[in-house]
Amino acid sequence: MAKTKELSKDVRDKIVDLHKAGMGYKTIAKQLGEKVTTVRLFANGRNTKELPRPGAPCKISPRGVAMIMRTVRNQPRTTREDLVNDLKAAGTIVTKKTIGNTVRREGLKSCSARKVPLLKKAHIHARLKFANEHLNDSEDNWVKVLWPDETKMELFGINSTRRVWRRRNAAYDPKNIIPTVKHGGGNIMLWGCFSAKGTGQLHRIKGTMDGAMYRHILGENLLPSARALKVGRGWVFQHDNDPKHTAKATKEWLKKKHIKVLEWPSQSPDLNPIENLWRQLKVRVAKHQPRNLNDLEKICKEEWDKIPPEMCANLVANYKKRLTSVMANKGFATKY
């Protein structure tokens, strides 16, 4: 039988107070999210005191726990082995398992650190400036924006991390494995764009893209996409600060075509909602298991066109949340 979670003294005291105020067991249970039987047990006040319990006492003193939590809060990358050594220097001998149990009991768990672009002070300042300047922009302003980007699609990309349901000792059953090849089986680079009205054209980039190729891609795909999506007059083009994008010739090309460009903070993929669509595309493509790069390109274009306009509209409608998150995180990277 699994162990039940012990109620804290605060919760037990709340039960007593609410019961004294005339509240019934069911009402108290619903308000505190506890079982009715639990509420009934503590409501009369006889069981609110800490009772002696069986088992070995905790090896780490409250002071030791406080030291551990202070360390991991200030330095989240601290390992269990580091904490074992810190306690050993203080005269307490424990195992890494004990350290792990202690930290989990305090509400923390070990997770993979998220990888995000390096942000220097100038980047953080620019991100905050962008968020402040556009926080109160109406949704109509974002509807006029055309969001582009490039992405890499690997032949065996998302498939390499898929999970399977299997029994013990069946890890190498052919049904439970993901075949791999060196270098991911090859990849293709794609350029795409979208607006609140849907996805634009998707273009495969062949070779190394320079400024001239980038301008050719814009000419062949950006303007037709803007017309097809009916973004209307006064639409705004967003692209990041890659040297190809900020080159003098590119700026002149955009000016000649009367395309207004949104000023953009560097190192800010979390502010570009097309990243969400790239993820959606990769999930969709992985289900098809393309056999070669040409097959991969074909499936990418088919699935890109199938992305519902409602998804695009929702990303744009919630854009203010991204700006709020940047400000709340003081300019650092956000969950987006």
From TrEMBL:
What residue stretches are annotated with the Tc1-like transposase DDE domain?
Answer: 146-296
Q: Which SUPFAM superfamilies match?
A: Homeodomain-like
Q: Name one GO molecular function term.
A: DNA binding
Q: Name the domain of life this protein comes from.
A: Eukaryota
Sleeping Beauty transposase HTH domain residues are 1-40
Q: Please report the stretch or stretches of sequence annotated as the Transposase Tc1-like domain.
A: 67-136
* Gene Ontology BP annotations: DNA integration; DNA transposition
- Pfam annotation, one family: HTH_SB
Q: What is this protein called?
A: Tc1-like transposase DDE domain-containing protein
Source species of the chain = Hucho hucho
